[in-house]
């Protein structure tokens, strides 16, 4: 399946929130939908699900107009919406029936997912009696009811310990392998890097970056080298020396050392020779590949 978002605009009153955004999501590849608070992520998702109707543009699924009510969609919103004082099993079954399941199938799906997340002993307990982490697991189970074709997850790892986070990552990976469409939104960039194949970055209602995550990293790291020293206290002075020795070289201090921007020059070998000649105590020297956090801050941090 391929979901295409084409030139979507959305305004509330006189304020335009989405400025003609376009990107695509492909089955078999989890897509990370990223942006600062207020960037337009939730508005985009609500337009996709027809909670809001866009002012212009369209959503296509495999070339046809996307009709969310005819699809099985699992949605985990950032603002959790389950009922604290209701028993867990009938509550999940109720959500499954709202999505079209028969009563029998709804209870079976709810029970299966409760067991999957190892919460079978709590089926007939009220949600408020569970710990925060276990409540989050029930919220997640709600998104997987009825084996959805499209899975939309907004900040899903909130409140999960490392063990449960790994279980959830494995679950998402399983859905991706089944050819489901997975849209994943989070501010926890390490999880996005682990889970997602593609990313789309939205800032103030505009798409500033979209595509294959590995390719984006390579492009963002092009012409850049990462250097770190055994003694970090020497880093700043070394940066000054390098920019004097190699005209056009740009040096930027970072937590791990220096990022050297060669401005398109083939300088890696020459710099390595210079470092050896100066007997610089290297800890690391090689091509620079930015993290997703680095890319995110570079693209939207200064603009904000």
Question: What's a concise summary of this model?
Answer:
The chain is α/β, with parallel strands linked by helices and about 300 residues long.
Structural overview:
The protein has 304 residues and is an alpha/beta fold. Helix content is 36%, strand content 28%. A six-stranded mixed β-sheet has the order 6-7-8-3-9-10. A hairpin with a 2-residue loop joins strand 1 and strand 2 (15-26). It is elongated and about 75 Å long. The two termini are 35 Å apart.
What characteristics describe this protein?
Rossmann fold; 6-stranded mixed sheet; elongated; alpha/beta
Q: Which ranges are low-confidence, i.e. pLDDT below 50, for 5 or more consecutive residues?
A: none
Strand content range: 25-35%
Number of helices: 10
Order of helix and strand elements from N to C terminus: EEEHEEEHHHEHEHEEHEHEEHEH
Query: Which CATH architecture of the largest domain would you pick?
Result: 3-Layer(aba) Sandwich
Coarse morphology: elongated
